[in-house]
Amino acid sequence: KIIIYTVDATPAKDIFRNVEVKFGIELPPADSSPVSFVVVSRPDLIDPGSYLRFTMFRQMMGGYRLMRMFLEEAESSGLPPPTVFIDTTGCSFTFPLLPRSCLVIPYVHYPTISSDMFSLVYSRRPSYNNSASVAQSRIMAFVKLLYFAAFALCYHVTG
Mapping DSSP to helix (H, G, I), strand (E, B) and coil, where does residue 2 land? Predict the structure, then answer.
């Protein structure tokens, strides 16, 4: 059984039709497919708009909470633990929750934290991840660099 957790409430039959149209892959009818979709009940936990400060850390903790919810729900429903986990969010903080026997496949099209983000804070330039108030303060910029360094270390260790 393949379970796909998503924030998109598009019906499975529409997703399957889109796969066929866009990629030319014919899938079995949605009602007889081993693939099922579960709409995330708390997308706010991973939505960056939910957090004004410490956004990356709070998103990662939100992802952690969501993963715990999924695993607990699966266990209480009698489903076995996942054997393969494909992550497309870059939320590596969830990986330690998975069983050791679970194969984790991260598909990350952009990293959660990168050297250009450090560079913007270090140069004290306002940007998408560096508010003007932080850019104007040496102390706040320094604290943010420490936050980024700690976050990058955690991201490295878990992912």
Answer: strand
Calpha distance 118→84 (Å, rounded): 33
Read out DSSP for 120-143?
HHHTT--BTTB-HHHHT-HHHHHH
**26 Cβ partners below 8 Å, 6+ apart?**
20
In tens, the pLDDT along 40-64 reads 888 899 888 899 888 888 988 998 8
- Whole-prediction pTM value? 0.75
* Distance (Å, whole) CA 49 – CA 52: 7
8 A C-beta contact, residue 108 and residue 90: yes
Query: Which of 81, 79, 85, 91 has the alpha carbon at shortest distance from 103?
Result: 85
Residue with tokens 């992550």: 87
